[in-house]
Amino acid sequence: MAMELGRYGVWHGPQHFGPELAAGLERAGYGALWLGASPDTALRDAEVLLAATTSVAVGTSIVNMWNSPATEVAESYHRLEDEHPGRFLLGVGIGHRERNDDYRSPYETIVSYLDELDDAKVPVDRRALAALGPKVLQLSGSRTAGALPYLTTPEHTREARRVLGGGVLLAPEQMVVLETDPEIARATARDRLAPYLQLSNYTTNFKRLGFGDDDIADGGSDRLVDAMVLHGSAVEVAEGLKAHIDAGANHVAIQQLGPEGVDLLPGYEALATVLE
What we know:
This protein is an alpha/beta fold. Helices cover 44% and strands 15% of the residues. α1 (19-28) runs parallel beside α12 (265-272), α3 (70-83) packs across α4 and α6 (154-164) packs parallel to α11 (234-246). Residues 20-99 form the Luciferase-like domain. GO terms for molecular function: oxidoreductase activity, acting on paired donors, with incorporation or reduction of molecular oxygen.
């Protein structure tokens, strides 16, 4: 891997990230900050995170190919690279069939987009690809630094590493709730999972992992919720995160869930003290 990400990073959309949280996470020792929720073409939110920190890596997870033309994204990449050399990783992905009216062949679109990034001189080792299924996982290993799977399990990580082979970035995202009461934790988890249970790329992947229609229906079974969202004490959650590393991940992007407006930094600081 060309970029040093450390073992653990933090994933959030721009509505939860900001300069103070970014700086606090860097002080806590996290190696990367991942900007989710389809960052815009100009990548201004990534620029805010880079400016608020000094050495931590910043990545997008992910820029939506349908909404962000490759040539314009490449210009933004080069701007960030000029301003903050060696610290930005461009994560791109195909988005969701249900949310894009002009949805065409996903695989062909990804290949074409990566071709355009090549033409715009975005280095292969400074970009990564959202990938769940084996075909796109293989593409991520051959055309980018590696894969950024979202909403998966250590079992998926193990299979993804088998598909990718060694020497390729594998950085899954993992939702967590720092709450020891399982019913409270599951309620928080279900609120966050609800939109994903309506998206075919995720439900298809759930079924690859052995979950059935009954697990996906009615807000998700306890079995599905517990598999997709780690919960418990910081020590218990840390063990679940380490399972991805043991399964072959180079890096895990942690997404802490909590009530709207809650200060997330103390939870991340608590986790940092028990992560290896």
